[in-house]
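INTERNAL AUDIT FORM
Audit reference: QA-55
Scope: verify that the stored structure record matches its stored sequence.
Auditor: D.O.
Record contents follow.
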Amino acid sequence: MFSPVRTLVFCIAAASTIGCSYSPSDEAGQGEGPGGREQPLALSPRQELQVGRKAYAEVMDEYRDRVLPDNHPDVHRVNRVVARLKTAAEIEPLQREIHLRVQGYVFEWQAIVVQERQVNAFCLPAGKMFVFTGILPVAATDDQLATVLSHEMAHALAHHGSERIAREQAGGGGLSRLRYDRFQESEADHIGVFLMAFAGFDPNEAVAFWQRMERLSGGREPPEFLSDHPGHETRVQQLREWAPKARAAKQAFDQGRVLPVGR
């Protein structure tokens, strides 16, 4: 829902200046992505970090005069939620169960809050996020804001930018690309609801947030087959299925039934 197309353009432009010769099968995991699926990547960890930093500089050039100061209440609220999600993202059993490829990667988690009516947020490769103030009233609680931010962080954790560049270079386009973009959005929802649960947020609020988004959209969203995002109804249905599983996984972790490797 949130990541703008121009972010992918930034990433492709940056990647072309670096060169893309990364083979994820060279590392442990034999190229497995989230959930154990096959996942082609265009960027090495070092390249992904460079791409994220370059994209961050370009986006900051666009929004710098509208960035809220650190002492603003909206910034405090966003940072409070990000801090909990960042801690959860470092939980090894969660990384392992989702099959997140994090070894060797650097995530520079930082949220920039921009004064902008747009109901939007997005995360660049390696973890820099931009949150527009237009989305903050829609996310009525911190749990609902965690829904938004965990979804965005999930894109970075799953290396979706690198994967989209790889598929661009392989010639994927048209309806095939739309279908794959929708898949990545659903995958970010899936990872995000587990991430927010492990951060101590209520995963049921992910369902509530998307129901709220559906009401606010007034049925004006395009048909799902024309959109690069799942429809609200699809999202709500999936999150209703995933939320209790995320809660059960967090409970198992809290009770010591799921331990880090080596313990």
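Auditor finding: record pair retrieved intact. The beta strands are 110-114, 121-123, 128-132.
Action required: none
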